[in-house]
Design goal:
single chain; alpha+beta; Double-stranded beta-helix; seven-stranded mixed beta sheet; three-stranded antiparallel beta sheet; about 30% helix; globular; disordered N terminus; binds N-oxalylglycine; binds manganese (II) ion
Length: about 325
């Protein structure tokens, strides 16, 4: 006898699907079986623009190929997905990420934002690895404060990240909401004035902008050499969906082709303001052990402030990009 859906192994689930298919081929042909019994995951939208919750995935187990494909399909459709109730270790977090791509290793080591224990983990926390609550004035916290501004992760790399997975370990109740914008919709709705400014143009993305923006320490010469500024198209085409989106990352953009600094700054500000409209935005209110997975190619995100006396411990993996940004 097979166990209940929650505690079945991947193999048991696959066997069950197979049996249902052989017993009820007419239902499968009609597509009905998936809604009734056969589906391993359920996906429920959380906002009309983007964001959905996925149930039926245990991130501690490897996914079978079919379930993985269902997860990826839901991700490509909803851009941001949340897996609630995932009691995972850092190692399990990294192993799950590996099913989607290679995890990035953060190039900057001086601020201890990269975990000492598991080097693929980026610490989005105000508690250090010795369990000490850090003050907002500390260098790592200053640097992290930049994530309150709209951005997409690792856009300063020549091949920017595909997506990120953030695990809420100790979540904030006084703020700390992570907000996302659907940049496909933003691109489609851009007013003519803004559209004509971005078509065919590139913007520069520079990691050292963080230092100029929030006063965190300047990158060391080695860090600077490892991550020189890069130019990416302002309109990009998604390699999986083929859709065009606006590609800006306000905390890293420091120049735009053919514009002086003031005009470039104004344009990024105008584009960001246009993007940050509630109709394009999903705001994630965290529950402990939510894992949020977003697509860095077609969304931007920003976290809301929270009481600095409240602990907030979040661990992130970031999926390495394998191709340059495609011009849209
Ligand atoms: C990130 C980030 C979001 C948050 O993890 O990439 O920008 O909620 N932070 O802290
Ligand atoms: Mn981020």
């Amino acid at each position: 006898m097979l166990a209940s859906a929650e505690c079945m192994t991947v193999e048991q689930r696959a066997l069950l699907r197979h049996r249902k298919r052989s017993v009820y081929p007419f239902l499968q042909a009609s597509g009905y079986i998936r809604g009734v019994t056969g589906m391993t995951i359920t996906v429920k939208a959380r906002h009309p623009a983007l964001g959905a919750e996925i149930h039926g995935v245990d991130m501690r187990q490897p996914l079978d190929a079919e379930t993985l494909q269902e997860v990826v399909d839901a991700w490509m459709k909803h851009l941001v997905v949340v897996f609630p109730g995932q009691h995972i270790t850092d190692q399990e977090h990294v192993a799950f990420t590996r099913q989607l791509g290679e995890p990035e290793i953060f190039h900057q080591t001086s601020l201890h934002l990269r975990s000492d224990g598991v080097k693929e983990i980026f610490l989005v926390s105000n508690v250090d690895e010795r369990d000490r609550l850090m003050r907002p004035s500390e260098p790592s916290q200053k640097q992290l404060s930049s994530s309150r501004m709209w951005h997409t992760d690792s856009s300063y790399r020549p091949m920017p990240s595909v997506g990120s997975l953030l695990h809420g370990i100790e979540i904030s109740r006084t703020g700390g909401m992570t907000q996302f914008i659907n940049m496909y919709m933003v691109y489609e709705d851009l007013p003519e004035r803004l559209r004509s400014e971005v078509e065919g143009r590139k913007a520069r993305h520079d990691f050292s902008m963080l230092h100029r923006l929030v006063g965190s320490p300047a990158p060391t010469p080695e860090e600077q050499a490892a991550m020189p500024p890069v130019w990416h198209p302002l309109v990009r085409r998604h390699p999986v969906t083929g859709r065009k989106s606006l590609y800006i990352s306000s905390i890293y953009n420091d120049a735009i082709e053919g514009m002086d600094d003031a005009a470039a700054h104004r344009l990024i500000e105008d584009l960001t303001a246009f993007s940050a409209q509630p109709k394009y935005m999903y705001r994630h209110e965290w529950e402990p052990d939510d894992v949020l997975m977003w697509d860095n190619r077609c969304t931007v995100h920003a976290v809301t402030p929270h009481d600095p006396d409240e602990r907030r411990v979040m661990h992130r993996t970031t999926i390495v990009g394998r191709e340059p940004v495609l011009a849209g």
